[in-house]
Design brief:
The protein has a domain at 75-198. It has 199 residues and is mostly helical. Helix 2 packs antiparallel against helix 3 (106-126) and helix 2 runs antiparallel to helix 5 (179-198). It has helices at 2-15, 19-96, 106-126, 133-159, 179-198. Keywords: Membrane, Transmembrane, Transmembrane helix. This is Phage abortive infection protein. The chain crosses the membrane at residues 26-44.
């Protein structure tokens, strides 16, 4: 160790600088190096922060789009599920009971046919913004049919107080039940339900 100290001392003397000058030079170099290093670190830190902010913003944008899409699909599936259930209810009620009635059954008509027909119509009117575009035309056909049925029901049962008419049909009036619409609604519900389960 002594050898290196002597060598350094001889070098300093040969160069004609004092130990004090050497310390000042080293100290000055350290300050400049520290300042440069700090500036570089600060620059890269800010650049990283900016990049992270851009990435975070893009991630939030994509997440928001995904969440909005997910919410729409969820609400659409719920709507289609409700319509599906009431379509099945009225179809089964019609095929098994209503079309076979021999006399007017106010309880059956009021509690099943009227309630489900009105619910389907109201679901579609109030939640049409949740329907996929390919079902909008079919929804209009269902609404038209149920509007006609509900008006005829009101006229026959409430205004005229008719208890002799056994069933209410609007097909002969030009408002036949749109079976294609029913099929499309059921298919779309099953398709969307399966997709929601896979998420």
């Amino acid at each position: 160790m002594l050898y290196y100290e002597k060598l350094l001392e001889c070098t300093i003397i040969k160069l004609g600088i004092t130990m004090e000058d050497l310390v000042k030079t080293i100290f000055g170099s350290s300050i400049v190096t520290t300042l440069l290093t700090s500036a570089i670190v600060y620059y890269f830190h800010k650049k990283t922060e900016r990049n992270n902010a851009v990435i975070r913003h893009e991630f939030n944008r994509i997440a928001q789009i995904h969440n909005t899409d997910f919410e729409w699909r969820k609400q659409t599936t719920e709507l289609l599920g409700q319509v599906y259930t009431h379509l099945n209810r009225t179809r089964l009620a019609f095929e098994n009971t209503y079309s076979k009635l021999k006399k007017y059954d106010s309880n059956f008509e009021d509690e099943i046919m009227y309630v489900s027909n009105k619910k389907i119509r109201d679901f579609l009117l109030e939640n049409g913004h949740h329907l996929p575009p390919e079902l909008l035309g079919e929804a209009s056909k269902l609404i038209e049919h149920y509007d006609a049925w509900l008006i005829k029901y009101h006229t026959i049962r409430k205004v005229n107080e008719d208890k002799n008419t056994i069933q209410i049909y609007v097909g002969p009036d030009g408002f036949a039940f749109p079976e294609k619409a029913e099929g499309m609604f059921k298919e779309k519900y099953e398709e969307m339900f399966q997709k929601m389960r896979q998420l």
